[in-house]
Amino acid sequence: MGQNCRDIIGLINEQKIACASSFLVVDEVIWVLTRKVGKESSIKITKAMLSMPIKWIEIDKSIIIKMLDIYEKMKLDPRDAIHLSSMKELGLSVIVSEDNDFDKVDGIERMNALKCVEKYL
């Protein structure tokens, strides 16, 4: 999966695909990276990620209110409900994720990293 993710990063940087992400992803990325490569490297990598041509979605009160509605109605954990709420805020319908919980959400297409690379590379 690592090479597929690197390929996706390349596609984003070359602006061959458009990307939007909730700022919540920053927390997820830095948490995983810190355990794998240490704090100093994780900070460096996260700063580089923030400089990529990504539309960053602010997590504000309206996102959280929508998240609570999603969380109440669907079998998603709160974090996934925030991602879905963020997507809905921008009218997005495709998510690149390995999390198959998004497969049960009507109107959302989930692509895993391999499928994304196969489609766009």
Overview of this structure, please?
The chain is mostly helical and 121 residues long. The chain has one domain: Rossmann fold (3-Layer(aba) Sandwich). The chain is 60% helix and 10% strand. It contains six helices and four strands, in the order αβααβααββα. The strands form two sheets. It has a two-stranded parallel ribbon with strand order 1-2. A two-stranded parallel ribbon has the order 3-4. The two termini are 15 Å apart.
DSSP helical segment count: 6
Number of domains: 1
Shape: globular
CATH-level-4 superfamily name = 5'-nuclease
Q: Under the CATH scheme, which architecture would be assigned? A: 3-Layer(aba) Sandwich
Q: State the distance separating the first and last CA atoms.
A: 15 Å
Number of strands: 4
Quick check: average pLDDT?
96
Oligomeric state, counting identical vs distinct chains: single chain
Instruction: Classify the helix fraction into a percent range.
Output: 55-70%
Radius of gyration: 15 Å
Provide the β-strand percentage band: 5-15%
Write the element-wise H/E pattern from the N-terminal end onward.
HEHHEHHEEH
The first-level CATH class name? Alpha Beta
Main sheet characteristics: 2 strands, parallel
CATH topology descriptor: Rossmann fold
Defining key terms:
Rossmann fold, single chain, two-stranded parallel sheet, mainly alpha, two-stranded parallel ribbon
At a glance:
The chain is mostly helical and 121 residues long. It is built from six helices and four strands; from the N terminus they run H-E-H-H-E-H-H-E-E-H. The protein has one domain: Rossmann fold.
